[in-house]
Amino acid sequence: MKGEIVALETEFFKALAHPTRLRILEKLAFGEVCVCEFIEQLDLEQSNISQHLAILRKQNIITSTKVGLKVMYRIKYPEVLNVLSLVREVLAKQLKESEELIKHLTDPFE
Amino acid sequence: MKGEIVALETEFFKALAHPTRLRILEKLAFGEVCVCEFIEQLDLEQSNISQHLAILRKQNIITSTKVGLKVMYRIKYPEVLNVLSLVREVLAKQLKESEELIKHLTDPFE
DNA sequence: AAAAAAGATTATAATATTAGAATAAGAAAA
DNA sequence: TTTTCTTATTCTAATATTATAATCTTTTTT
To answer: How many Å from the CA of B41 to C1' of D24?
Structure first.
């Protein structure tokens, strides 16, 4: 029971633990995006982008609809974006702290 | 610039993307824990636990202090726990939705 | 000082993830 | 209906992660 929840959480974090997938989500934060745009903007092989989209889809983080030849992707649960911004907050706090350490190193008598 | 932020985020998610490390954080949510307790409760090799602790330490998520022979670990930025609970919320929402799908499958005429 | 206890580190074999190339599948246009 | 366009899938080689075993390191007992 508890182990299965941890497993779900793990898979979720794994899905987010790749720069390409984070960049995809960043773009989707502004709304629907078609695969062709990702190909244009991310400067990666089409097949690679498609693989990363598949991972996010499998994790139920994004969904797609086919519109003619194109496939439009969007974020399925907007709460995912809150996770991303919360992580950025933690990182900001971490960086601020090391910044202060540097300050003390360079101006030790202030 | 933007790429480096994404890289930081990626490393952060990677640090959380393992069941053992999530279990460690779960235990640390209640307060300080010594390595010996992890060894006892997680039923894994000592060296393996130590490796996972090192990954969380390197990511600046936890810190340790030595007390005699023992080493006590604790969460450094409590905000990390908010990330975990937010993720659980997303998972809950996802599961609730698939639960409703099952309901419609089994009682299609309700 | 030698032995023991608690953790950390290193090396390595097994496994998993990733990127790129090739191919397939689907829809629309010619 | 053949061709073209857009995306998905499969295969594979390269890389990264992981767990175990063995080896330190540090501190405390004896």
So the answer is: 25
